[in-house]
Amino acid sequence: MTLQIELVAADRVVWSGEAREVIARTAEGDIGVLTGHAPLLSLLVPGVVEIFPVDGDTVRAAVSEGFISVAADRVSILSEDTFLADEVDESALTAELEKARSSDDEAAVRRAEAKLRLIGKAS
Amino acid sequence: MAVSLREYRAKIRSTQSTKKITRAMELIAASRIIKAQQHAAAAAPYARELTRAVSALATYSNVDHVLTTENPDAKRAAILVIASDRGLAGAYASSVLKETEQLAERLRGEGKEVTYFLAGRKAETYFNFRQREFEKSWTGFSDKPTYDDARAMGDALIARGGHMDDADEDAEDLPVIDELFVVYTRFKSMLVQEPTAIRLFPLEIVEGEEAPEDAEVLPLYEFEPSAAEVLEAVLPKYLYSRIYSCLLQAAASELAARQKAMKSATDNAQDLIEKYTRLANQARQAGITQEISEIVGGANALAEASASD
Predict the structure, then answer these.
(1) Domain CATH for B101
(2) ipTM score of the complex?
(3) Of A27, A59, B97, B153, which one has the fewest beta carbons inside 10 Å?
């Protein structure tokens, strides 16, 4: 048994496939989802989602506010802004963070910080 | 006659360059439609999952939310009009505006006051020209909308939707909107696009297009932190996603309408060129015939003159 994962951003499917485990940060704390998990609909906070695929390396993605839904070994992670670790570029992110800070957009600051944290963790 | 021939040739040349332009616009629109359809297809999984989640919330929780509850004596309705930024798309913008007028009339008939939110420069100029008031307008993205555009529009609309806790203070001075409608052009196929009016809130959870597997039984979800909080967080996203899908469909429709309009313009230009070419040939022939008869007449006159000597 494996989990069917769909990591979805507002305008595209970021990653989908089979995995053994997913770790995500929800409003209630980090949760790990294995097969046979009870149906769950939980809110995500901006942070890093880790997916352990059946084969291949761990997939890391930065998410903004969104939610995770688990049902019958199908996991959907929905977040408006979702990026895989190898898609983001540090200098672009630092610029984005600066811009967000200067424009006093708290949500944007958190989004950018989440992405930066992701890079720090991945490298 | 020679003057007329030159005029025809000039007309042919100018029609040919018009045809080149309309042909180019047709091809550009055609290639962009494919992209717009891809965007719409790419946005579908998000909308589908979101719809599932909202349906689950609506089915398994008894939580009421201002965005979902009907207001029996709704006083104010808002219409979000999604039109294009540019013209040259046939009747695209005007049919959206016509649909808007019909909807507005119906709402006024029900005794509601109507306010407008506009997307697209064409809608804006329509209202400005008639010196009619609208509350807010967004322009510059009608053929290539992004999710951020949808979010910005959604935020502005939710803020005016009133009674949400965090929006209350800012919206105090403006009367609250009880109902929100969207008028956009639904993309049915490359040939058929339909101006449509839908109600966005109070929300009707639409399974229709976004959720093909409607026969599926929804699992009994556990909501964390609580159903109410999840609903509070998910509903605005659902609204954004609905607006986004309206924008994407409108964009695809706009491009399809433009392609169609430009195709018929190109065909018309071709017809004109053919017509002018015929007329030019006729004029040329007439010129030649006249010259010949002048020469013959002149020769005859000379021959007669020398014969009579």
Answers:
(1) 3.40.1380.10
(2) 0.76
(3) A27
